[in-house]
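Open question from group meeting: does this chain pack into something compact, or does most of it stay loose? Before anyone orders reagents, we agreed to write out a predicted structure and look at it together. Recording both the input and the output here so the notebook holds the full record.
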Amino acid sequence: MKALFTKLFLLTNHYKEYFKKNTPFIKSDSKKFTAYLYITLTLFSVSFFGFFAIKPTLDTISNLNKQYEDNTFVYNALKKKLVALDALNVQYQTLQPDLNLVFDAIPKTNKIPYLTRQLEKLTSAQNLNLSKLDFGVIEIYPALKPTPGMFSYTFNITVEGSEDKVNRFISDIISFDRIIGIERITTGKTDNNVFGTTITGRAYFLNQ
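Structure tokens returned:
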């Protein structure tokens, strides 16, 4: 029994000496482990809280990128539309002289004063005597209108002069730049024994 206690005592002293000798190494490893643990926890904390801190910024960047893509799409669409409008403008400029002829042929208003001056100039150009010029009622809302948006009114003109000049006057009215519908033409000697003509025409306009 005494021998057993002696062995236990010696074994205990042996381990005491062992721990005394190896304590610095154990403490050193413990310090390294603690340092690594602190570093790991610090990095985790920074990453975890940093994510929530920069999340609004990331959302803002994402929204800005989406807005940029949308604006780029709209910008490209507008560029295509501008190119198409430029092409249409070129075509319009090319057709402009023809459009002027169309608007002269069928004006947007009745232009009665202008038509009056034109007829007077034609009469004067042929050295004819203008004995009568009047206009009928302007047709704005006819009961039966075959062409929607198209309106008209009649006029009567009587001129006197030599036969050849009267015939040229009739030809000038037929080839007028404005569309004139000839409804009735009478020619012959008047009561004054002078050659003349009476023309009933119809002038058209769009009333826009």
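Observations to bring back to the group:
DSSP finds three helices and four strands in the chain.
Residues 1-5, 7-12 have pLDDT under 50 and may be disordered.
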